[in-house]
Design brief:
The protein has one domain: Nuclear Transport Factor 2, Chain: A. 46% of the residues lie in helices and 34% in strands. The chain contains 3 helices and 6 strands. Strand 5 and strand 6 form a beta hairpin. The N and C termini lie far apart (93 Å).
């Protein structure tokens, strides 16, 4: 009888262990699914924020607002432009933008075609098209169309700022 009770006790312990393991797997799967859902929601919010920032930056460039345009750059940003050495740091970017915004007949706009946010939530990249117009001394307008890639980094205050910007012409 004692042996039967021991065997029944062991069977009960095994059943509890098997049931617990099954519940643990279901619980882990539920937690994983919830984590994925939260991650996707955060990435979608970040993508929306970056698209809004990019549109605001383009609007500031179109209105030739130097100070507003510079608010989109991180202090340690780098800008790579055609036929130009790399421009590093916000103050050097300020000088380049100041010169660019002073060009006669300037028109600058850009539009995001895609934004990818890293699952880490601290970096993202955007790619799109741009249009750059200037006028010569005779008033003839030249329009250059191109593409760009911009790298955004989430700052300590949760704002997204540009840390890398590269653009080129299609010609």
């Amino acid at each position: 009888m004692h042996r039967l009770c021991t065997i029944l006790g062991l069977v009960c312990v095994l059943l509890i262990a098997v049931i617990s393991a099954g519940c643990g797997q279901e619980s882990a799967a539920r937690l994983h699914a919830e984590h994925e859902r939260i991650l996707q929601e955060r990435m979608a919010r970040d993508e929306t924020a970056i698209r809004a920032a990019s549109a605001g930056w383009s609007k500031a460039a179109q209105s030739k607002d130097l100070e507003k345009s510079l608010t989109f750059f991180a202090d340690n940003a780098i800008m790579l432009s055609p036929k130009s050495p790399a421009i590093q740091g916000k103050e050097n970017i300020r000088k380049a933008w100041q010169e660019m915004l002073a060009l006669p007949g300037l028109g600058l706009s850009f539009s995001a075609m895609g934004v990818e946010v890293a699952s880490s939530g601290d970096l993202a990249w955007e790619h799109g098209t741009n249009e750059f117009a200037t006028s010569d001394k005779k008033g003839k307008t030249t329009i250059e169309k191109g593409t760009y890639v911009t790298v955004w980094k989430k700052q300590a205050d949760d704002a997204w700022r540009v840390v890398g910007d590269i653009h080129n012409t299609n010609e």
